[in-house]
Structures are given as C-alpha cells and as structure tokens.
Amino acid sequence: MLTALLVMGGLAVGLGAVLGFAAQRFRVEGNPLVEKIDALLPQTQCGQCGYPGCRPYAQAIAEGRADINQCPPGGEEGIKQLAELLGVEPKPLNPEHGLPKPKAVAVIDESLCIGCTLCIQACPVDAIVGAAKQMHTVIAAECTGCELCLPPCPVDCIAMVPVPERIETWKWKYPVIPLRSAA
C-alpha cells in the first residue's frame, strides 16, 4: 500500500514537472500592441463599439478589423491617444456607436426595486449587489457607467447620475508638454 502511494506520488511530481516545463517552453506571448491599446480604452465594457468589451475591441483594432473611432466613452481624447499610438490621423467619433456623454454611475431607487436580478445579470463588471426578491444597490466605485443595466429593468428604478467633477475624478483636457530646463 505504501509503495503504491509512493509510486503515485512520484508520478504526480514527475508529470507536474513535465507540465510546468512545457508551459514555460511553449508559452504563447500576447500581442503587446493589444495590451497597449487595451490600456488606452476606458474599460467600461459597454459594448457600444460593437464588441463585447474593451479587450475584444483592442484585439480588433490591432488586427485592423475595427477603426479607432468606435468608443463613445473614450471620446475624442481616447481617439487621439489611439491615433498617436498607432501612428494614424485622429478621426471624429463615429456617431453610429453613440455620442460621448459625461461620466455617470447607476443609482437604484431602492423603494421601487422589486429584486428581479435582471440588472445584476446585465452588469459586465459586477457593480450591482443584491439577492432575488430583495432590493439591489450599486457599488459606485465599481460602476463604469455603461448603461447596460437600464434596458432589462422592468420597473425603471435605475437612473444614471453624472459623476461630479472632484479632484479625484478630474482629468486634464490638454496634453502636458514637458518644460525644458534652462541650461
């Protein structure tokens, strides 16, 4: 019995080592361009671009299947950054995919919520918490403002509230030009 356990343990360790070596030896590197494009996208996972999230959209841009002007949450600034990264001319936002709006978060009127969980299922970033037949609430820090929770709500208890501009949410609208030191 002990011999069988030792043999099985030895086989497990040996096969684990072989698998670990194979994983390192035959590792497939991700496309670094996709990583850079994805880092520039707003990560709202809203699907307004026609893709199910920011990563698939970044993949499509890198492969030349999508244009850089399909992301309303990224706005003109996002398009400029993508154009600079890819070395192409910036284009105006394609209105087929929506118009840029101020950043907003979902807020649930808890007195109207019936606890149907449809908004929870629709949220791509799990920013809504609650249980069936119980009121739900939104974790504002996690909400990306994608508005995907609005259509499935049968009682229209969800509203999008603009995020107030505070020091934590404010962004410089113009590129920062480094100053040269007077030497």
Automatic annotation (TrEMBL):
Its cofactor is [4Fe-4S] cluster. Its EC number is 7.-.-.-. It comes from the Bacteria. Transmembrane segments: none annotated. One of its GO terms (cellular component) is plasma membrane. It is an enzyme of class 7 (translocase). InterPro entries: 4Fe-4S_dom, 4Fe4S_Fe-S-bd, 4Fe4S_Fe_S_CS, Elect_transpt_cplx_RnfB/RsxB, RnfB/RsxB_Proteobac, RnfB_subfamily. Residues 29-88 form the 4Fe-4S domain. The keyword Metal-binding applies. [4Fe-4S] cluster 3 binds at C123, C143, C146, C149. One of its GO terms (molecular function) is electron transfer activity. Belongs to the 4Fe4S bacterial-type ferredoxin family. RnfB subfamily. This is Ion-translocating oxidoreductase complex subunit B. It comes from Pelomicrobium methylotrophicum.
